[in-house]
């Protein structure tokens, strides 16, 4: 399972801009409110900070730094629509202010305005080519859209600026992986954990990649590290259960997958994994029951139909098996048609 995680939430663009003292009394009052707002924001007193920035803007309607910082507060309380409006004012009046575009991109990304967010990241980079987080977040958006070469380029740019940027290595590894560049993916995942040995999800990424390649012993090693670091990272437990199954270590596999099911009873994939383990143990009724539960949770889960059909065949339910294989075929597993003919 790929873990594509992003760090650096609203706090990364919660940088206060400095005011310039001007003798005008109202400007000085606005500056006072503004500075008080910054102090309150830094104490996570967001409602009070909003009031102070509102007061600052009331005293000085052209106080564009206050609009920006009020937008930061709105973003911090997940009111991204209001944040975007404030960032609009800030960048319209401070066209070279790269953090305004970056902050607006983060909020637009959150509300699903992906193309607009990419444009803002690009504009921020045109103002400051060393803004490595803009490369990183734009890379994440490109990765999520399946634009793997673009994502790789963005993550590479981020790494060139910040060579120890572990998250960029992790996500570039995932982009390489999805682009079928497995050696490059492994190299990047290894670099990620070299720079940050606490990244349990990257150890899971390494383990799952080795699992896909049939290197089950190596997979178990990395997945075990992921679980040890995280306490109980569910994707790593699922993957280790599959690796243990491939190694014939069925009791250990059952222990892992049963823990996942106990913790996440709606995790339909886990039931099919456990169903496959039961099948290996010749417990066909239990196998069929688990695949049935997976189907109940996700009626479009093609693998569960395929595997339940195999279990039903062993239970001498030929008609049920054929129905399952037909459904699996309809859902996109082309090899299921071979079972029907057989």
Explained architecture:
The protein is mostly helical and 342 residues long. Among the domains are: 1-113, Tetratricopeptide repeat domain (Serine Threonine Protein Phosphatase 5, Tetratricopeptide repeat, Alpha Horseshoe), CATH 1.25.40; 129-196, Tetratricopeptide repeat domain (Serine Threonine Protein Phosphatase 5, Tetratricopeptide repeat, Alpha Horseshoe), CATH 1.25.40.10. The protein has helices at 25-42, 46-59, 64-76, 80-93, 98-110, 114-127, 132-144, 148-161, 166-178, 182-195, 200-212, 216-230, 234-246, 250-263, 268-280, 284-297, 302-314, 318-330, 336-341. It has 19 helices and no strands. The radius of gyration is 26 Å and the shape is elongated. The two termini are 32 Å apart. Helix 2 (46-59) packs antiparallel against helix 3 (64-76), helix 7 (132-144) packs antiparallel against helix 8 (148-161) and helix 10 (182-195) packs antiparallel against helix 11 (200-212).
Keyword list:
342 residues, mainly alpha, Serine Threonine Protein Phosphatase 5, Tetratricopeptide repeat, elongated
| CATH homolog superfamily of the domain at 1-113 | Tetratricopeptide repeat domain
Largest sheet: none
The separation of the N and C termini measures 32 Å
CATH second-level architecture of the domain at 1-113: Alpha Horseshoe
- How many strands? 0
């Amino acid at each position: 399972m790929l873990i594509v995680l992003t760090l650096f939430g609203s706090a990364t663009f919660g940088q206060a801009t400095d005011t310039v003292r001007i003798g005008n009394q109202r400007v000085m009052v606005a500056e006072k409110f503004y500075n008080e707002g910054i102090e309150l924001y830094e104490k996570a007193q967001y409602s009070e900070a909003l009031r102070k920035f509102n007061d600052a803007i009331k005293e000085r309607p052209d106080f564009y730094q206050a609009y920006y910082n009020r937008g930061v507060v709105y973003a911090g309380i997940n009111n991204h629509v209001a944040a975007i409006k404030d960032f609009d004012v800030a960048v319209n009046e401070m066209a070279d202010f790269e953090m305004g575009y970056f902050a607006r991109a983060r909020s637009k990304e959150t509300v699903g305005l992906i193309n607009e967010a990419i444009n803002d990241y690009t504009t921020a980079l045109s103002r400051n080519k060393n803004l490595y987080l803009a490369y990183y977040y734009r890379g994440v958006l490109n990765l999520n859209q399946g634009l793997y070469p673009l994502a790789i380029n963005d993550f590479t740019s981020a790494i060139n600026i910040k060579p120890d940027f572990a998250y960029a290595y992790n996500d570039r590894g995932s982009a390489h992986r999805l682009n079928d560049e497995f050696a490059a993916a492994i190299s990047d995942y290894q670099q990620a954990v070299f720079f940050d040995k606490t990244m349990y999800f990257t150890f899971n990424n390494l383990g799952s990649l080795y699992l896909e390649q049939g290197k089950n012993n190596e997979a178990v090693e990395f997945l075990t590290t992921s679980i040890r670091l995280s306490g109980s990272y569910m994707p790593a437990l699922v993957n280790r259960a599959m690796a243990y199954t491939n190694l014939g270590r069925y009791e250990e596999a059952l222990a892992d997958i049963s823990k996942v099911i106990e913790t996440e009873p709606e995790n339909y994939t886990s039931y099919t994994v456990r169903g496959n383990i039961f099948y290996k143990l010749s417990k066909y009724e239990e196998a069929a029951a688990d695949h049935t539960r997976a189907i109940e949770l996700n009626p479009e889960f093609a693998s569960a139909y395929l595997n339940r059909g195999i279990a039903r065949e062993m239970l001498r339910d030929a008609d049920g098996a054929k129905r399952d294989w037909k459904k699996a075929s309809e859902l996109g597993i082309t090899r299921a048609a071979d079972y029907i003919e057989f």
